[in-house]
Specification:
With about 240 residues, this protein is of the alpha/beta class. It has helices at about 5-15, 25-40, 50-65, 85-90, 105-115, 130-135, 155-160, 180-190, 230-235; strands at about 75-80, 95-100, 125, 145-150, 165-175, 195-205, 210-220. It is about 40% helix and about 25% strand.
Length: about 240
């Protein structure tokens, strides 16, 4: 796909989904797509290889979170994979400080290459687990916004996310359709970690792709014993 075709498709999808289109940012997203797909030939970082699908399911999807950032100064993306939603959000929010973390080192290597080649500033990519970084006082309860995309169930992921969110900040979970039962099961866990579900925003990005954005407001500090280590949030989620 050439740049002009990318720009046209991306602009059309932005208009359909109420996302601001920006020519320079579109160019940067195009470069990041090319880099990711090039890396994907050597390291499996995305199952999406069709470029039109990539625009919708990676870029447009990621940018649905942009409306939550408001006056945020510091954003964390947990389990970022190939940089979603973190990289598109960073491109749109150049003055905001971003931290992207993933437990798979090869994905962080890809992210660092994208960061370097796009000359992005105020962003770091870390190879670390959330339960380990969550004990670090430089990161714990210091982020205005914490995001995840389709990482585990809500009860589990809230234990990883909320310890990073400062009181008054937001955790924004990107989930697929049919998550009503998951919401009910996660209510107690979210309260235990100091949060409260504020909104569930349902979006139909296209005819086949539904996205639910669950925003959780941090109401009080999280007990220092969370997040638990040794995979306990996944093996023994709080109910």
């Amino acid at each position: 796909m050439e740049l002009k075709e990318f720009q046209d498709i991306f602009e059309q999808e932005c208009v359909k989904n109420g996302i601001e289109y920006n020519f320079e940012k579109a160019n940067m997203l195009y470069q990041s797509m090319k880099l990711i797909l090039e890396w994907n030939e050597k390291v499996n970082v995305t199952a999406i290889k069709d470029e039109k699908e990539f625009i919708v399911k990676h870029f447009i999807d990621s940018l649905t979170v942009n409306s939550f950032l408001g006056n945020a100064k510091r954003v964390l993306d947990i389990g970022t994979g190939a940089g979603f939603p973190g990289i598109p959000l960073k491109i749109y929010q150049e003055n905001v400080e971003f931290t992207l973390i993933d437990a798979v080192n090869k994905k962080v290597t890809v992210l660092q290459d994208i960061i370097d080649k796009l000359n992005l500033r105020k962003i770091e990519a870390l190879h670390i687990r959330a339960e380990d970084l969550g004990k670090d006082e430089n990161y714990r309860e210091s982020f205005d916004i914490v995001t995840t995309r389709a990482v585990s169930n809500l009860a589990t992921i809230s234990e990883y996310m909320l310890p990073f969110v400062k009181v008054g900040g937001l955790a924004v979970c990107m989930k697929g359709p049919n998550m009503e039962d998951e919401l009910k099961e996660a209510k107690k866990a979210i309260e235990v970690f100091g949060g409260e579900i504020e909104e569930v925003k349902k979006l139909l990005i296209n005819e086949e792709f539904e996205r639910n954005l669950i925003s959780i407001r941090k109401k009080k500090r999280t007990d220092e014993k969370y997040p638990r280590g040794q995979g306990k949030p996944a093996k023994e989620p709080i109910r």
